Amino acid sequence: MPAVRPLARPASPSTRLAAALVPSLLLAFPLLLGGCGRHERDMQMTEAPGRTTVGAAPNAPLPPQGSQPRRGPTGAAAPADDGQWTMATKDYANTRYSTLAQIDTATVKNLQLKWTFETGVLRGHEEAPLVVGSTMYIVTPYPNILYALDLTKEGALRWKYEPKPMAAAQGVACCDVVNRGPAYADGKIFYNTLDAHTVAVDASTGRELWRTKVGDIQIGETVTMAPMVAKGKVFVGNSGGELGVRGWITALDASTGKIAWRAYNTGPDNDVLIGARFRPFYPSDSGVDLGVKTWPPDKWKIGGGNVWGFLAYDPELDLLYHGTGNPGSWNPELRPGDNKWSTGVFARDPDDGQAVWYYQSSPHDLFDHDGINESILVDLPWQGQPRKLMLRPERNGFFYVMDRTSGQVLSATAYGYVNSAKGVDLKTGRLIPNDAKQPQTGKVVREICPAAPGLKDWQPAAWSPKLRLVFLPHQNLCMDWEGVEASYIAGTPYVGVNTKFYAGPGGHRGELLAWDPLAAKPVWSVKERFPVWSGTVVTAGDVVFYGTMDGYFKAVNARTGAPLWQFKVGSGIISQPVTYRGPDGKQYVAVVSGVGGWSGAIVAAGLDPRDSTAGGGFVNAMRDLPQYTGKGGTVYVFALP
Amino acid sequence: MLAGLVVVMAAGVGGVALRQRLATGTPRQQPRLTAAATPHLAAGSATTVLAADSAPVVGYAPPTRLERPGGGRELRVCADPNNLPFSNARGEGFENRLAELVARELGATVRYTWWAQRRGFARNTLNARVCDLVMGVPSSYELAWPTRPYYRSTYVFVVRKDRGLRVRSFDDAVLRRPGLRIGVQVIGDDYANTPPAHALARRGLGDHVVGYTVYGDYAQPNPPARVVEAVARGEVDVAVVWGPLAGYFAPRQPVSLELTPVAPQIDPPFLPFVFDIAMATRRGDSTFRGQLERILVARRPAIDSILAEYGVPRVDVGAHATAPDPAPDPAFESALDTAPAPTHDLPPGTAVSLRP
Question: Which of A144, A326, A396, A498 is the catalytic position?
Fold first, then answer.
């Protein structure tokens, strides 16, 4: 069980009540630590200096209740809530906020399981269910089956569609065979298959309308991300940086599947779609063909910069936002330079893909700190002036508040323990590296924090416009790094790297954190035994839902973090919970269980717990997961009685 | 050539697709399940399907048994279906030949599970118990229990003879010649990389490096061969390539190529270019490993002969590498005690056999 730590002054009678519960939970905390700090490493880390910033910033004020903007958080990017859930991110703004409030902090304790549905697939389920009208749509991990479930009949199967992706794609995917969900628009369901195809399916019949090959698994390309549909186009990006695949984002015509444009994230400006409109905020991002010149000759050709995270779109600015993955394929000594346009975020014109601005969160990335985490679009006053902001909880450990019209960084604050970098220079926008933690071939470097998955990986945060808080599911892992003599691939011996992840300061491996982006301060946090690898959803009822890898679906008070309700599901949760209004007018909450992904591969892929470096080092931090959960693949739907 | 091969067919789309591709002569990736080894055999063969999602191995695994429930003995081998000179689905690689040799000695037939040898290979094959033997891994490989090594090879410099370039060491001035292009294979996982990629980076020669992913395009035959072809085509002036790959593909290019073992063999403080290669069993499979090691000793001349036939550059043997394949010795067990152990401590600069 987690411990709750309030960091904010309670703002209402109900939160005061919840806060009264807290001391007992705090008392329980050391005991719990002992329970999960089974590894010497963990225990050592609890003694480590430089603790997480959480706890260092008490008394962050909460906004008064009822301060919700009339038009929602960002106007057109998060329009009025119709009770459906038509894209993984809930809206273009990535809020994952629902105005439904039938289930609130008082009633949530009465939640009951209403029905379940078995997906029949036992790999990591990272997807978000969609709800359109009276139908729920579920996409499974490979083999990427699409199910349509009848919400008027407790999830009875309406139809299923099986795209039958190439089996070989499983051997290409780096980090389990996940899928992060479909998108709905104009009577069609769109999604991506692991073997790098995008499909459109008739939402009422399950008939395939078109199928487009967007990448080639033979060169290592897969697609795991949830597409976004806007302005008649479906936006899709590729995975495969670990295999040296060059990253891109592409737009397909939603009615025909024809590729409208494709923008690469390395290479000459023509390929990157950098032209006259490109106005990056920082001078270091200006220049001709930086996607070539910030690499030694030709290295950009297998340079990574993939697009596998969530996309965002602002209809008023008419800008599409996407992150880019880590630079691939080369030991960093062989790729001196910023390695653009990897590990950053682009704003593009959705009609033609032309770049408008770019910001690089980790120039010359050394740690696999992809820039693919979500961008949450919010309109808020910044230092007294209304601004169009973008909130980015980055993998490198810094929470960025940016101006989404220009790409300017307004603030960047560590939201956990970070020693891989010293901060962000707000004048130049550049990350300030920490030389002492720089890996080098032939060198052993200990206690690099955060580890390769970053302080937060793909798992998406939620934003409550009502409370003006971001709810961040994330991990607290550090790593040791050392070169090893001999690994072997395709008949070729090479010099490998052992990375070993383990719990960071505090000894817990995961956390749900409430973060105030304007004050750049934590408000409360819930510690978890394992990385919180699920997404989150927050409601107008001030309830935050998330899942844990040991198989609990939980509800906490959005104002205080106080636990309100939990339900033990069949397998660990690494998916994206959603909430919707059912055909009967009631509010429902749905989540898919099925542990796996990079973090859960020890269960889903059966990695050997004795091999501390398996799963890219993740197994070391997850040895005890098989004691808590097994494989699964089930949709759970809850409502009040 | 493939006498005694037992064929297991994959269920599902992938297997069918592979068979079709094989029929047209372009083997492709089929990493998931067992697949047909040859098109004509596949059509009417067995139908066993193996679950790759086995539970994690806890403690030491049960020992390998060759006896099959229906009678007969099988040697279950996992191999890449598209990676000469090591193996392919047509049985044309030297690891296929070695599997045949080992199976003969064990009175068994070979059954393959095909899987592209990439990240996750050991986990999905040997350690998922879909097979009991992998024919080649470095002897310090930690994901398995390797046998004693059966050959030691080295990275080599590959140049076109008609270029007249003499490259013997990473420190040769010729590598610094302006505009010189050096092909290396890259792995694609940041710090993990091939030794030449590290060595050239360390010497500030990154601008000269042209990268070829080891993975390549799996739709093409033997994707890692591209780096050797690049030298022949003049895309690069020199390539630094793992010996067995270069030794096999160099003589198959339209122009004459020259292979020179790299120096130093170990780039201080510790970047090795020479690797011992062993067969791999599951951790704890000691009886089976013992059986294999006895075969490695007893049939060493035959093994050397196969490696020589494929042009594997050796740094652990001398003249006897080209000895003819003797008939199996029925009393090989008794010969074990007197068989000399492989020599692995030759001084640097020892002559290397590069010719088939």
Answer: A326
What are residue A399's DSSP bridge partners?
A: A393, A413
Calculate the CA dihedral of residues A528, A531, A534, A540 and round it to 10 degrees. Answer: 40
DSSP characters over B19-69 = HHHHHTT------SS---SSHHHHTT-B-----S-PPPP-SSPPPP--B-T
Helix B286-298 × helix B94-106 angle, to 10°: 110
Tokens encoding A579: 């909430």
| Strand partners for A116 | A636
Query: Which residues of chain B make contact with A633, given a CB cutoff of 8 A?
Result: none
Picking from B12, B142, B214, the nearest residue to A167 by CB comes out as: B12
Within 113-172 of B, beta carbons closer than 8 Å to A belong to: 115-121, 123-124, 127-128, 136-143
- Res B21: pLDDT: 32
A490:B80 CB<8 A: yes
pLDDT-based confidence at B217, cuts 50/70/90? Answer: confident
Smallest Cα–Cα separation from A137: which of A228, A81, A197, A202?
A202
A76 pLDDT tier (thresholds 50, 70, 90): confident
Q: Which residue has the tokens 């979500």?
A: A374
Can you say whether the dihedral through the CA atoms of A167, A173, A176, A181 is positive or negative? negative
State residue A484's pLDDT score. 66
Residue B319: predicted pLDDT: 38
Residues forming beta bridges with residue A587, ordered by sequence position: A581
From the list A127, A221, A242, A365, the catalytic residue is: A242
Separation between Cα atoms, residue A26 and residue A32, nearest integer Å: 10
- Tens digits of residue pLDDT in B69-94: 888 999 999 999 999 999 999 999 99
DSSP helix/strand/coil, B145: strand
- For B137, the closest of A488, A490, A611 (CB atoms) is A488
Q: What are phi and psi of B116, to 5 degrees?
A: -60, 135
pLDDT at position A35 over 60: no
Task: Give the residue with greater pLDDT, A66 vs A245.
Answer: A245
List C-alpha distances in Å: B233 to A11, A297, A328, B237, B253: 73, 19, 26, 9, 9
CA-nearest of A328, A396, A314 to A359 is A396
Residues A430-459 have a mean pLDDT of 91
Which positions in chain A touch B270 (Cβ < 8 Å)? 442, 485
Which three-class secondary structure string do you get for A197-239? EEEEEECCCCCEEEEEECCCHHHCCECCCCCEEECCEEEEECE
Q: Which residues of chain A does B119 touch, with a Cβ-Cβ cutoff of 8 Å?
A: 174, 242, 489
- pLDDT band, residue A506 (cuts 50/70/90): very high
Query: pLDDT value at position B274?
Result: 94
Looking at chain B, the number of H-run helices and the number of E-run strands are: 10, 14
Q: Is B196 helix (H, G, I), strand (E, B) or coil?
A: helix
Among residues B283, B335, B19, B14, the alpha carbon closest in space to that of B126 is found at B283
CA distance B321 to chain A (A): 21
Q: How far is CA A516 from CA A62, A396, A399, B157, B308, in A?
A: 8, 18, 10, 58, 68
Which whole number is the average pLDDT over A519-548? 98
Cβ contact, residue pair B245, A495, below 8 Å: no
Q: Which two tokens stand for residue A310?
A: 């969530």
Q: Is the pLDDT of residue A24 over 70?
A: no
List of chain A residues whose C-beta atoms are within 8 Å of the C-beta of residue B219: 216, 218
Per-residue pLDDT tens over the stretch A186-197? 999 999 999 999
Spatial separation of the C-alpha atoms in residues A128 and A139, rounded to whole Å: 8
d(CA A311, CA A249): 10
DSSP B50-119: --S-PPPP-SSPPPP--B-TTSSBEEEEEE-TEETTTEETTS-SHHHHHHHHHHHHHT-EEEEEE---ST
